[in-house]
């Protein structure tokens, strides 16, 4: 983003999903987010890590006290990824921050829609995705990761 940030993630996504949770919609100023969960051990900053700023919030709509820390670029303001206490050792990256657009159509194509209970009615189910009313369970994520 803004030519300042460069992340390198190996193909070790735990889950790739679309998320309709209110908090995620607010932080991205969109009606849903598309992202992927990756182990922190597989996330490397090639450049620009010093430009990252962060803030945390603990009063989320669905899970009170679940601190989510947001990492964003201080140059352009783009949200790069989030980390939550509910996902220790993992980061939630945004597909739109990946330089290789083709990955969004292939390896980073979402397989799960979660929090569909918060989806606006003018957005329909995305074809071939698992629909989950709330948060995807670890079991559902693992099952989709192995497909």
Which CATH architecture is right? Alpha-Beta Complex
Please give the radius of gyration in angstroms: 15 Å
Work out the helicity level: 10-25%
**Element string (H = helix, E = strand):** EEHEEEEEEHEEH
Domain unit count: 1
Here the CATH topology equals glutathione-dependent formaldehyde- activating enzyme (gfa)
Largest sheet: 8 strands, mixed
What's the number of extended β-strand segments? Answer: 10
Q: Beta-sheet strand percentage?
A: 35-45%
How does the overall form come out from the CA principal axes?
globular
Main-sheet strand order equals 5-6-7-8-3-2-9-10
Average pLDDT works out at: 84
CA(first)-CA(last) distance: 31 Å
* Individual helix count: 3
Poorly predicted parts:
none
Give a written overview of the molecule.
With 147 residues, this protein is mostly beta strands. It has one domain: glutathione-dependent formaldehyde- activating enzyme (gfa). Helices cover 14% and strands 39% of the residues. The strands form 2 sheets. Strands 5-6-7-8-3-2-9-10 form an 8-stranded mixed β-sheet. Strands 1-4 form a two-stranded antiparallel sheet. The longest helix is centred in the C-terminal third of the chain and has 8 residues, at 138-145. The radius of gyration is 15 Å and the shape is globular. The N and C termini lie far apart (31 Å).
């Amino acid at each position: 983003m803004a030519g300042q940030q460069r992340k390198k993630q190996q193909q070790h996504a735990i889950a790739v999903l679309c998320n309709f949770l209110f908090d995620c919609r607010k932080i991205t100023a969109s009606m849903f987010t598309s992202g992927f969960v990756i182990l922190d051990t597989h996330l490397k900053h090639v450049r620009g890590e010093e430009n990252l700023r962060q803030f945390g919030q603990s009063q989320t709509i669905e899970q009170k006290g679940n601190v989510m820390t947001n990492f964003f670029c201080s140059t352009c303001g783009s949200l790069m990824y989030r980390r939550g206490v509910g996902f220790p050792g993992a980061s939630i990256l945004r597909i739109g921050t990946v330089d290789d657009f083709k990955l969004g159509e292939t390896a980073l194509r979402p397989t799960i829609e979660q929090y569909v209970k918060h989806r606006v009615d003018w957005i329909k189910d995305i074809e071939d995705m698992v629909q989950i009313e709330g948060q995807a369970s670890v079991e559902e994520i693992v099952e989709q990761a192995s497909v």
